[in-house]
Amino acid sequence: MSEIATKEPAAPSGTRVPGVFRAALRRDLLLAFRNRRDLVNPLVFFLMVATLFPLGVSPESGFLAELAPGLVWVAALLSTLLSMDSLFRADYEDGTLEQALLSPQPLMLIVLARVLAHWVMTGLPLTLMAPLLGVMLFLPAEGMGGLVLSLLLGTPTLSLIGAIGAALTVGLRKGGMLISLLVLPLYIPVLIFGSAAVQAAVTGLPLAGYLALLGAILALGLVLAPLAIAAALRISVSG
Fold first, then answer.
1. Closest Cα partner for 68 from 133, 154, 146?
2. Residue range 117-136, pLDDT digits in tens
3. Which domain holds residue 60?
4. Judging by beta carbons within 10 Å of its beta carbon (0-12, 13-18, 19+), is residue 101 exposed, middle or buried?
5. Domain total in the chain
6. pLDDT above 50 for 192
């Protein structure tokens, strides 16, 4: 954290900003690798949903294939939400978050690095595991490409939106349920367009429009979410 909190007056601002982002991203990735349990839990939950759903409903292949696009997306959404409560909590408890707020470095870059690290450790593994779940749920081969592409565009948005809720509730002891109430309504468009893209790929319809909508939501999130996260952290810590 010293790389983030220490100002380097000799370096031009154009070179200092990428350095701050790289230092924050490296730190967050190292911390995530050290806490492997936080990495494994969403993946295990993702796998359990696909494994237990056929046992609780019906193992018939046609029925599961019809539900597979929405089921995989709902499982990915809930798995991402499962890890959101701990996104800023450790830094809040040990004072690192307050140090970042007081430092002269741009807070938006620090939180964007944190969200990127969260996606690399959670959203990206879920995306790579999704074809396996698709096979388990008898998703036709034609839908695998749409499934991976939609998750690749949609899971970063889930992390960005979830980080806003995590920032708003970081000062609360039990903020996990409150995060769900705050961010689930904002997840609905991503869920609709993501599952619709997979369904379009399965039926042979063009899916470029759905992917374009997911990309537009992601671009909007990259611009606005860091501002909202930084503001929410300031409110939570100062309050």
1. 133
2. 999 988 999 999 999 888 88
3. 2-238
4. middle
5. 1
6. yes
